[in-house]
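Lab notebook, bench 4. We co-purified these components, and the gel suggests they stay together. Before we commit to crystallization screens, I want a quick structural picture of the whole thing.
Request: model the full complex, all chains together.
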Amino acid sequence: MKLSHLKVGETGTIVAFTDLEMSVKLMEMGCLPGEVVEVERFAPFGDPMAIRVAGYQLCLRKSEADVIIIQ
Amino acid sequence: MDIKVALVGNPNTGKSTLFNRLTGLNQKIGNFPGITVDKKTGFTKLADGQEVEIIDLPGTYSLYPKSKDESIVFQVLADKDNSSHPDVIILIVDASNLKRNMLLFSQVADLGIPMVLALNMTDLSDKQGIYIHINKLAERLGVQVIPISARNNVGIDKLKQAVANTNKIATQIGAVDVNFLAPEAISEIKKKIKSDNDYYALQVLHQHEHLTFFTEQEQGEIEQIEQAHKFESAKVQAAETIARYKHLSTILADVVIDKGTAQKFSFSDRLDSILTHKVWGFAIFLLILFVIFNAIFAWSSYPMEWIERGFGWITSMGHEHLPAGMLTDLLLDGVVAGLGGIFVFIPQIAILFAFISILEDTGYMSRVTFMMDKIMSKVGLNGKSVVPMIGGLACAVPSIMAARNIENWKDRMITIMVTPLISCSARLPVYILLISIIIPSKTILGIISLQGLALMVMYLVSFVAAIVVAWVMKIIIKTKEKSYFIMELPIYRMPRWKNVLFTMYEKSKTFVFEAGKVIIAISIILWVLASFGPGNRFDNIDQKYASALADTTKNTDHIKTLVATEKLENSYVGILGHFIEPAIRPLGYDWKIGIGLITSFAAREAFVGTMATIYSVDGGDEDSVTIRQRMEASVNSKTGLPVYTFATGISLMLFYAFAMQCMSTVAIVYRETKGWKWPVIQLAYMTAMAYVAALIAYQFLK
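Here is the predicted assembly.
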């Protein structure tokens, strides 16, 4: 399942990335495989989204959340 | 200078606050040689008397750059001959989010430069129930670890002491052995560049294109090594990042003790649910905008008036007391007038940046960005373009400076390119004057003023133009840089008022010094062009009116204006006005408006002043006659028809809406993009757009 498919309040564990280049940036920001993420909210127009990961709040576009595979 | 220290850290870790704490006002902004990134340096003294130069490097999450700004960090740390290469690195991390912050530490540590770890925001982490075993951490990392709170000025002296204690030799314990990632390529690079540092060699493989100190031949050789061993940059970076986090987990195991995660963010969460709410979020945002606007207009009007009066006073005092002559005129009417034109913007700049810095400091700005990104990205802008575009309603100059917050190069360029289209406050006097001439002062439906409606339409036109141009540029401008919107949403905090004051001071100073140079140059040129004419034309005018002026029994004020007007017509600017007349006739303008267009380049509002001078001829000698009435009464000398028809008025307003008639903006775009390419493109496209729009409007309406 993709991170972008989660609803507000739902959590998941990162297992893999589908885009190598994006994965480097995401991992540098703390989105590591094994890390638990929780969807905090979506922006008023449905995109981007805010997630809680590694003890802080990160926002990213849905297209970027698409590359994160969660369980 | 005895020691050079570089500040390195993630964004939002309080790096700039620490920099300000360490250096006070003793700092300056320069350029990194050859790169378009500001370099902030400052100075401080250690307890043992050593002088320290501190360099504030751009905030970054890793040594692998995602933007131009970030690429500086490795360039400075890699190049031993770089004038900013540090002897000691202070790596600052956010203690309340240690693990993510330590990734950068572990990368930098492996470069083998002596370093100190500053654990910032310890007050915050204490509150959140995070306990950090400082000694254990220091022991495992092999460097001094200093807990500080830059915001509350805690631990700064200890940090300075730690810098003084730091050895010339790096003591950090090698974090991750990266050799396994690309063993052959690394060993070949090490031989090539004569280094024994595996990680440095690996970084060279990744980033040599950014490193200017390699010769072309060396670059080619490194490229060959890359290809020979099929070095895949992204894959290796991913593997390295995972290895580093794995290592950090063992380092931080039983160093960080977290007692209560659940409660930590409840305040920020509750605020977020209101501030980014579908309805309330936008309502609050609009309210804040309204307050900012109101402040920019209302609070700045008095100081701006004082500045104008002050410069007026200097000019008149100068003319009274300095010996009359060309040099005095040049100094007063060229340089002083030019300086006045710069200083008058300071109140607006300072106020706009006070608000921006408060909104940023509190963490609200990233929420605005978060809310607006969807709409803005549709037309090639970025959530972060909101701030400059809104500021553009007041003045494009500080707004273009504010576009620096946009990391993505393409998004930033588009923002800079379209911001001057937004109807700024300098267009207001021009619109008001023209609307009062061509639009009848009537109301429709009893309450809506036709003139007010026209003014609003002009503002709407400016927004539509900015959006359309942004969309076109999104298609035209090509970039390899990927547009990310992966951004930290920092927790809400109180603004640091000292930082706010400092930002106001710093931005105003930058504007005066950087934009000032160009503005003064152009003011002098304009003054020369308006004060001199070819041959003996000026002498002839003087002779023509000499007898009338000599008559002391009559009031000579009107004659003086006549002389001034006739001189302006015969000056180089006037000749230029006549010269461009054929080009602007299709737009419905005569040579007098042509002069207005030329002098407007100093500042748009100069149009009103120029018109006042020029039309002093046609309107007769009564002082009570306003510019408006004079302009209304003026007729074209060739056709005998009124100059200011509805068609000409609309055409002229559209011209002012689109044309880049503002040398301050040209100057600031030059400064922000560090070259003439973008300001020239901007000038060209805006002028072309203005001409075409004015032409179409006039030809349809006449």
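Chain B has four domains: 3-165, 178-258, 280-321+334-422+436-487, 518-534+565-701. Worth comparing against the SEC data before the next meeting. The first helix of chain B runs from residue 15 to 23.
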